Task: structure prediction
Amino acid sequence: MGQTLTEKIFSRKANHPVKAGDLVIAEVDMAMGQDGTTPLALRSFQEMGTDRVLHPERIVFVIDHNAPSPLEAVSALHDVMRDFASRHGIRLFDAGCGVCHELMVGQGLVVPGDLVVGADSHTCTYGALGVFSTGVGSTELAAVMVTGKLWFKVPETVRVIMDGTLSPGVFSKDIMLHLASRKGADWATYQVLEFSGPVVDKLGVEERLTITNMVVEMGAKAGLIAPDEKTLKWLEGRAKRQYESLQPDPDATYAETVEVDCSSLAPQVALPHRVDTVTSIEDLPTVPIQQAFLGTCTNGRAQDIEIAAKILKGHTVHPQVRFIVAPASQDIMVQALRKGWIETLVRANAIVVPPGCGPCVGTHQGIPGDGWNVISTANRNFKGRMGNSKAFIYLASPATVAASAVAGEISDPREYFQ
Amino acid sequence: MELKGKAHVFGDDINTDYIISGKYKFKTLDMDELGKHVMEDLDPDFSSKVEPGDFLVAGMNFGCGSSREQAPRALLASGIQIVLARSFARIFFRNAINCGLVVMECDTEGIETGDEMTADLTTGEIKNLTHAFTRQAQPLPDVMIRILQEGGLVEYIKKYGTFQEI
Ligand code: SF4
Result:
């Protein structure tokens, strides 16, 4: 019987054929921890009564969430990570390198067919490369450091076929917000979403990463896109290991097949405080904004910054708005500098902060004031997410965020794409 | 093994930012300190109302959002010993078991704050003593029961050194 991509990856890792529902103990190819989750993992590691990391070359630490440190206590936790990493020969990306997920893919640390875990819920991002990747807790990261393995329940797969063509000014982010509103925040709990169809085929790797990044907002354990020519090309010169590009069998068993017609889709906006309360921008009443944020593991990539720079060119950020831009990695920052996008943004009065999570998680670099409306390219708008539970966070594509930063209210970006 | 305590009821989609806000998790690894701020965006007095052993009861998708393990640990530190919900977000579910916080999936309709509850881990039987009804919870996979029996994943790994074949 045919296997889904997920079943194929787990069969390889477990060394015997598995199907959805099976419990397996599997070796993981890579495990990642960031500065919000690793300190606790290191404490669990110590409590496990060993001082040996089984495969240090398979572990990556990233200081991105709260970086550079805004507080003494955080500096101390960062030092704990640095000390541990240097003692055990673990690769560490320090403050300013970028967002953990962008580094894992951008640096070629994960390759198709891998089984990867990360102590961060958006570890699911790497699925755009055909990697089975999923978020785990700190203690599980510690268990992987000790044993090299973890237990998994092989999830069933829901197939999502993206049909039609996207109109100018509409992006993969809009499709995912639309899907969240159609299906709800707990739709695919314990399941994998596998994306295919003409729209996916046409999207570049960057926009595909936005898709798989958002699957956890629909409850999914992972999101997958089978590798194609574009994936392989993107990995050239990047991939740090050999890999085999696995594909799902044509007769694989899916729990459900969902079709999304992307042709009629307008830009979408998620309303506070839920990712699945979404409206088409055409139906949104006037929402004045006080802050706009472009960045994160969802939409802080080169293409996103380029779109913002194009929109801001010849305009300035509305005087009532703070527009914060956080490139997702150093490479992206450098590219944006070389291309002149950063200059355009800064001249337009945007605030560019170091590569990393920026204000996404609400600890620094742009905590909104009471009653502020914020429009953000992030994946989450829970109450309090950006550090103030009295703020209102709207989510949208980079184009919508940039157009709104100019207008001072949430605005349809399509006028810039005619 | 039977647990007994008072219910504290919340709704659907209680995310980890509500359980413990991101602004605290970076500041400290002191779980007792975090325990004081549990659920405070939804109920500022929550931690002062909890007595050791109490039940947290919720609807769908409890623990959605970030992977922060501080969420189940802070709940434990506040005195909550078990969470009953219609469904859980998967990372929270795993994290809870790994920390020794009991989580069980069952129909939670009709349970009210203040109700006296019991839960039997081996049979999955949940009783509401105040309103005299019984619910059946989903049994946990064996590997989870074993981790819970050891008192969490740390103790499990300490004892066995690695994962026991399933
Ligand atoms: S950018 Fe935001 S969502 Fe992404 S890893 Fe950082 S804090 Fe998490």
Chain A touches chain B through 54 residues (CB under 8 Å). The pocket of iron/sulfur cluster is lined by residues A 65, 99-101, 120, 122, 296-297, 357, 360-361, 378-379 (CB under 6 Å). Chain A has a mean pLDDT of 97. The longest helix of chain A spans residues 72-88.
